[in-house]
Design brief:
This protein has 391 residues and is of the alpha/beta class. The chain contains 13 helices and 13 strands. Helix 2 packs antiparallel against helix 9, helix 4 packs across helix 7 and helix 7 crosses helix 8. The two termini are 22 Å apart. The chain binds pyridoxal-5'-phosphate.
Length: 391
Amino acid sequence: MIPVMNVQRQYASLQKELDEAALEVLHSGGYILGPKVAEFESQFAKYCGAKFAIGVGNGTDALVIALLAAGVGAGDEVITTAMTFVSTAESIAQVGATPVFVDIDPETFTMDSSKLEAAFTSKTKAVIPVHIYGQAADMDAINEIAHAHGALVIEDCAQAAGAKYKGRRTCSLGDIACVSFFPTKNLGAAGDAGIIVTNDEALYKGCQAYRVHGSGLNGAFTYARLNGQDFDESKIDFHGNLPKYYNYIVGFNSRLDALQAAMLSVKLPHLDDWNERRRQIAAIYNDKITNPALSKPTVAEYNEHIFYVYPMKVNNRAKFRAFMEEKGITTGVYFPVPMHEQACFATLGYKHGDFPIAEDLAEHGVTIPMFPELTDEEIQTIIDAANAYTE
Ligand SMILES: Cc1ncc(COP(=O)(O)O)c(C=O)c1O
């Protein structure tokens, strides 16, 4: 079977460097934070064209921590897209706020910015656009609308590390950005990992505090900021003890592991090449898949898509998937249930029909294999099978 995603081939291509980097960490005895994490944070911030990066345990924690650092909590509303992985909406609920959904654009599948304005209320504190499938959301429009309402923009970059919008990298487009390094992502760790990126020093300190139990100077600073108090560092006294034992806000244990940071530092220099290869494969699919039963993805003219997946639509998805499987090709569905129809959000009161574009994609969306290490022969096999399918 040709898999829809694959992590072993990438490991094989960098095995020597990855093994050496892992062993170096193991021998060092420095497993929590420390120089490997700081090094990767600064490499990733630079890559995104941003000032600060804070390595955390995974992409979901990145979203939760970013929301908390932004002061979002009970009684607030946060607007996001109806078509995303559950983490985006789940993180909003986790901080006690209410997710408010907006339908997606029928061409790009990102948040439909023309529907954003209508979703604001006096309770809206933030907007989370998702750069879904590897393509940036319409950030200029989203920033303009959100900022006019005094709301913060949190980019969900889990599926789009390295993508560009109007020549600028994702993660540098809003007020704060969250990335997942889940192993199958375009930049994947060897386990769970994530990062938060921002140019805002106060948000940076807040995220630093939340990832380590709200402790130390960053915790004290963030407590003061979130409670509208002046912060006077000279009044903070740890009495000669470790600052980590002085906790000012209730936070988390969510740090990027040194081992994961070391893996990611080996991989980051290859990300642009890998993304380029994904784009190349997408261009071949665009060109050679000519079956009218399959609708191919659209890239907005201002975007450099990095094809985390190659999203298509087909009328009879079950039939297409069975047909491809018979030909030895795995397909994927991202995602079968839109957020407003998830059982865990039933109490929000949405109903089928509220977001027809997201519902249509949930019913008809399908992806074919996409990862940089696909061979030319496999690509041709996939194209031939897709073109041989009949409804
Ligand atoms: C859009 C989106 N947001 C958030 C996440 C959460 O990331 P993680 O799995 O690292 O918690 C993911 C990926 O899994 C995702 O695809």
